[in-house]
Amino acid sequence: MKKQNFNFSIIKGLLILVAILFSYSQPTFAQDNEGESTEEVEESSDSDSSSDLGDADRGKELFQANCAACHQRYKRSTGPALFGSLDRAPSRQWLYDWIHNSAELIKSGDSYANKIFEEYNQSPMTHFPQLSEDDIDDILAYTEQPKPEPTVADSSDGSSSSAQSGGGGVSNSVILGLLALMLLLLVIVLGLVNKTLSRFAEEKGIPIYKDDKPKQKPLWQMIVENQFIVIMFSVAIMLVGSYWAYFFLMQVGVDQGYEPVQPIHYSHKIHAGDNEIDCKYCHYSARQSETAGIPSLNTCMNCHMAISEVSEETATEEHSKEFYDGEIAKLYDAVGWDPETFQYTGETKPVKWVRIHNLPDLAYFNHAQHVEVGQIDCQQCHGTVEEMEVVRQEEKLTMGWCIECHRTTDVKMEGNKYYEKIHKQLSKKYGVEKLTEAQMGGLECGRCHY
Amino acid sequence: MSSNNKKYWSTIEELEGNEAINKVLQQREFAEEIPIEDFLSDKKTLDSSKTTRRDFLKFVGFSTAAASLAACEGPVIKSVPYVVQPENIVPGIANYYATTIADGFDFSHVLVKTREARPIRIDKNKMSGNKSGTNARVLASVLSLYDFQRLQQPKVDGSETSWSSLDEKIKDDLSKTSGEIVLLTQTFASPTTDKIIREFSEKYNARHVVYDTISEDATLNAFQAKYGRRALPSYNFANAKTIVSIGADIVGDWQGGGHNASYAASRNPENGDMSRHIQFEANMSLTGANADKRILTKPSEQKQVLVALYNNIVKGSTNSGDLSSQLEDAVVKAASQLKSAGKNAILVTGIQETEAQLLALAINEALGSKIIDTDNPRLTRQGNNEEVQQLVKDMNAGKIGALLIAGVNPAYSLPNAQEFIEGLEKVDCSVSFSMKEDETAEKCKYIATTPHFLESWGDVQFTDKDYSLIQPTIQTLFNTRQFQESLLAWTENDTKFYDFLKENWEENILGGSSWNTALHDGLFESSVAESSDENNDNEEEETESINVDSAAQKLLNAEKPKGFELTLYTSTAIGDGQQANNPWLQELPDPITRSTWDNFISMSKADADKLGVKNWNVSNGALNGSYVNLKAGDVSIEKVPVMIQPGQAPGTIGLALGYGRKAGMQEEMQTGINTYPLYKDFKNFQDVSLELTKGEHEFALVQLQNTMVGRNIIQEVSLEDFINKPQDDWNPVPVTDHDHENVSVRSDKVDLWTSFDDTLGHHFNMSIDLNACTGCGACVIACHAENNVPVVGKTEVRKFRDMHWLRIDRYYASEDTFEEEKQALKDLPAFKPYTSIETPSYENPEVAFQPVMCQHCNHAPCETVCPVAAITHGRQGQNQMVYNRCVGTRYCANNCPYKVRRFNWFEYKENDEFDYNMNNDLGRMVLNPDVTVRSRGVMEKCSLCIQMTQATILEAKKDGRAIEDGEFHTACSIACEPGAITFGDVNIEGSEISEKRKNKRMYRLLESLGTKPNVMYQTKVKNLKDA
Question: Can you list the alpha helix ranges (DSSP code H) found in B753-889?
Fold first, then answer.
């Protein structure tokens, strides 16, 4: 009876624990939602304040569509920051003229126009004759919104941001600490109860059972002396042992799940996932060459010359905006780009990436063959990279894995004149219309090992 | 320096001066006793301890096992991409650049394959056609780029310096010197370099002396005397009907080389007509081995033969002086064949006498030969011996104030090198433009370190019409500067050499054509030949002033040598010795002797017997030989090894130049003996005396079997039989017995195996035309470069562990001809050993070459015996060697009838025992990234360059097109200039290779074994028409 009581208390303890856990996690979600909603409120209130210029929401759309490639609101990019341009420019009319045809304005000898042109390395601004003055007003309404003060945000929902930035880290450790404390208490309580009970028993003279059965051979000795069991047992151990040994050896050198930390935290999720950049935009040599190629840093700069910081929405629980901006700064450092002057310094520090997919030298793999000719999606071998914050090796990359695919996948031959003759010959030989790579001879050793 | 007050101390006690401890420490390693004894004698503690010794060992064992298992985890591999990627480089895709090698000895149009901006292979530039030729040295020069013995900085007085300080010092020296300033250079044949040298000479009032290490002075003089300008006649042997050569190594380096392809073209029997080639020579040269008729002629007799031919052809007299009757007969026949061939006849000679070359020119003129072209002569040799010798005299007389040496190494290669070195000491300002600290550079005050030609800009003018460009294919590896750039700097011209070059081309050469096209092609053919009006004027005068008859008389009157007549030659591998630090070339077997890493005297058997010189095989089969001491006038060389050479004219010996270099060379590469001291007056014929001396020399030969023992390994037929007799007579299909009937081995009936379907998809075959193969060895080097074949070194070659995937077997006939050898086998009495037909005829045997690589048998004996199935057969016909499966049983090598498999006895990469290019980072840059570098304990062999065929297939797949004939290549088929090696897909209808398979000359090696090889040979045809 008493024992059962103890069990109940354990279950109770667990229930309490679960309850505490929920009580801690629940408010975090709630605050998240709150934070988002307050931000929205702020934005809309901002747009109200500058409504004399135009419709800021429409201006935002226009800004994103036309201006964002070269301009940022609060920071210099290819062109100047647009916030405050209304004050800087000689007049609003000047702004209209500049946006419609900047070259003409420069040619006309306008001093401010020429000053700006010189200041930004004489890179001419695209003409936007299609933007009406109202459109421009709308854009101005958006760009003239003052930068939301970070301190304001902090004071308004400071608790939420600290909970956010801390992520699950703090709550997790708190839970774990509490758990440990509970367990400790439990042990102490149990000990105390036991002690009290035995004292009661002693005082009341209840005998405490002690083992005083006649001496029998211990169980282990009986087992040891039974030959049949011993043999069965050793056979079983050997079988299990070799089973484990086999699987242990088979995974030697297989780095499935390898997920090293890279010198620059490059998020495929942001680039390939959220922004839907085609894999082959950066890994272009996958279409031409054996290697997919790690993009050179100047490829990054095609976009990052203009994108020096991530938007607020990019930040996640795990990684803050400051973190991502720091990584972009690392890129600038490596490629030798001075974001202040908008110029290359010439001091480069090549990035030493950690290779994730390593085929042994004895195996020849050609990306072009699979990507360009075979039209296989990158994801088939690399997994859903567009969802990976940190890239890992998704597949085993063993020979068995290669062979498996060569055996089962039909080769895409339609429209490729190279295959015409061999397709005719082989489909006749095997009596099939679709040919696998294995039937094409793709299992021959020399196709990959030379 | 001497007052060094630093105090060194090894312990704190010593520093602080703790005397007691210091005293103890002087005697013992530790100040306190280590309580080992106490510990071991304390039985009680030991017994009570729970950790016994055994437990300890167990722990150690477990932790070691755990550590080693943990080590199974792969290492972290870093990848570093470009920061700014060059536009034209795609990682993994090769780029090709056309450029030109012009090192003063080899001049050739080449195409350089680069991967990720590293040159990894050199091919012939096919656009150049017949304008120049490649050879083994040209193809191997890519490895010389990655030579870690190269200088990395300019030097002053032996210590490294910067270019600015070097410039300052040299300019200062040049302006101050009271003596004459002289430029001593190789032949650049470069219009732009000449222009720069002219400008430099004008500024400093300098003299320009051109020095060719291997002189063609005699030819240049003769050509000048007859045609008014110093140049070499051009030859195109392709249409030749009769070729008579007197000591000229046409296939080799004679007159600057490059005649290999056109010579081989004349040997094509397919139209029922091929050239007749008669060779008068003393050494067994590569050309002599290819000749239809080879006549042993001593150097002194060669001059007489030439005069006799001159008398016969030009004078019409039959007076042939005091020639032996045999030679006289040969001369008469040669003369009549020359005359009957008329304009398709050519006579060439390698005798380095102006008179001899004059005679040759006169004979060709009399014949009306169209093979020789004197209107568009070659400019690739311009050296002037007289001026060089005058310079040495002036130096010793103290007249020279500054000497600038570029591209040559006179302190090593001059016959009077010692005199030159003494003279050099009297020159105040000596500057060497050199890649290495060679014999000359180490004695110069300044070394203006130059880049390799693959890192340089430049141009070459081959003839009046043919120009070519040199462009860099890699950023300079070291802090080097081109010769031209230095001269520009010292003439206060701040133009970059590239701009100077481009400007000069656009102004003077291109004539409005595109610079970019010329650079892309690597060559440019000018429509207007450089005006040579003044030369033409001279021509008339000069021609009249020379008297060929008196030249002939002078040749006849030449002093008869008293001792052995030595012929100096340049070997196929080492040439003039510039690239002696190149391990590929050191290990390239000499085509005739099949020897590596060496030079030696070649001597006839008769002379060897007379002198008591021996060659013998030691227990592992390797060849050893005696030494002789050699004396020529005041020069004596001790302990020269002797190899007994079949076909060496008695009374003559041969010896290769270019060996024995020491300075700026890796120790392993310091092979052979420097024979330049014998090259007196730049004459290749010398009079020497020999005497036997003690000791034995170890040769490293890759082939010991010298004859075919009457078998049909190399099939041969005379032109007459080839035309007139049915194929079965001279190229029968081997038969075997089946049901008491002779059945062709090609029939399925006699096959143990099911037949192999070779009609599906691609099926690769290779054809080797034994008529076109001259044995030049270029394919061996190309294979080295493409397939990462390791170099094993002399001692390993001696153990027959050479790794060449492709070898060129050389066979001597045991009688005079192979035909007679076969007859001798038939006539061999029963129970008599084969010895008589196993030894080559030492007099004048017929010679034949046969490139042998893996034959890729459809029924391969190696495949069936491999216990781990590491060799499999692909549908495309390749016998595929899988290194990672191989466990090294070597059963396959044992079962291969062609002996083409190579075993990695050692780790040849990153191993100090094999300190060649694979043992240093620089040398490894030449490795082909598409081919595995094999490790110890695995078999390897020719793969038919599967990486190249697969790449071709992939290109076609990417483009979505069918593959056409001529797209498939192997490294050797590209390298083979004479076109002996043809490679392709037999399932492409009408392809060259499928035609070759149907050719009636086609046979397969040891076909009777039923191995069904995918490599085939084309029967060798010899033109035996004797009159």
Answer: 778-787, 794-798, 818-827, 835-838, 861-865
Q: Which of residues 47-76 of B touch A (CB under 8 A)?
A: 72-74, 76
> How close does chain A come to B859, measured CA to CA in Å?
16
pTM value > 0.90: no
Closest CA to A163 of A25, A14, A55, A339: A25
| Whether the Cβ atoms of residue B362 and residue B548 lie closer than 8 Å to each other | yes
Round to whole Å and give the CA distance between A134 and A132. 5
Q: What is the amino acid identity at position A159?
A: S
Distance from CA of B122 to the nearest CA of A (A): 21
What letter does residue B440 receive in the DSSP assignment?
T
> Does B85 touch chain A if contact means CB atoms closer than 8 Å?
yes
What was the ipTM of the complex prediction?
A: 0.82
Per-position b or e across A406-434, b if 16+ CB within 10 A of its CB: beebebebeebebbebbbeebeeeeeeee
Residue A231: partners with Cβ closer than 8 Å, 6 or more residues away: none
* Contact at CB, B954 and A366, closer than 8 angstroms: yes
Our CA dihedral for B144, B147, B153, B159, rounded to 10 degrees, sits at: -120
List, in sequence order, the alpha helices (H) in B342-491. Answer: 354-367, 385-396, 410-413, 417-425, 483-490
Nearest CA in chain A to B763: A422
pLDDT tens-digit profile of B314-364?
A: 888 777 677 888 888 899 899 999 999 889 999 999 999 999 999 999 999
Nearest CA in chain B to A348: B83
Give the pairing type, strands B764-769 and B1015-1018. Answer: parallel
The chain A residue lying nearest B93, using CA atoms, is A289
Tokens of A199: 């004292």
**CB nearest to A444's CB, from B74, B880, B947:** B880
Helix axes A158-166, A2-49, angle to 10 degrees: 120
C-alpha gyration radius of chain A: 34
C-beta neighbour count of B73 within 10 angstroms: 11
Q: How far is CA B602 from CA A315, B359, B564, B688, B692, in A?
A: 82, 29, 12, 14, 14
Question: Considering only CB atoms, which chain A residues are within 8 Å of B927?
Answer: none
Q: Tell me B828's DSSP state.
A: P
Residues of B in contact with A429 (CB under 8 A): 760
Using the beta-carbon criterion (under 8 Å), do B81 and A293 form an inter-chain contact?
yes
User: Would you say B760 and A425 are in contact if contact means Cβ atoms under 8 Å apart?
Assistant: yes
**CA-to-CA distance for A68 and A59, rounded, in angstroms?**
12
pLDDT tens digits for B30-68?
A: 666 666 677 666 666 666 666 667 777 777 777 777 766
Contact yes or no for A296 and B81 at CB 8 A: yes
- Give the 3-state secondary structure of residue A387: helix
Contact A298 B84 (CB under 8 A): yes
- Other C-beta atoms closer than 10 Å to the C-beta of B114 total 18
Which residues does chain A have with pLDDT short of 70?
A: 1-52, 149-170, 208-214
Residue type, B464: D
Q: Among candidates B718, B846, B719, which has minimal Cα distance to B294?
A: B846
Contacts of A350 (CB under 8 A, 6+ apart): A297, A334, B80, B81, B82, B83
Q: What is the pLDDT of residue B879?
A: 93
Nearest CB partner across the interface for A348, out of B77, B83, B963:
B83
Backbone phi, then psi, for A195, in 5-degree steps? -65, -45
Instruction: Sort out which chain B residues have CB atoms less than 8 A from A348's CB and list them.
Output: 83-84
Question: CA A311, CA A300: separation in Å to the nearest integer?
Answer: 17
Residues in chain B: 1027
| B594-641 residue pLDDT tens | 999 999 999 999 999 999 999 999 988 899 999 999 999 889 999 999
Tell me the CA end-to-end span of chain B in Å, nearest whole number. Answer: 84
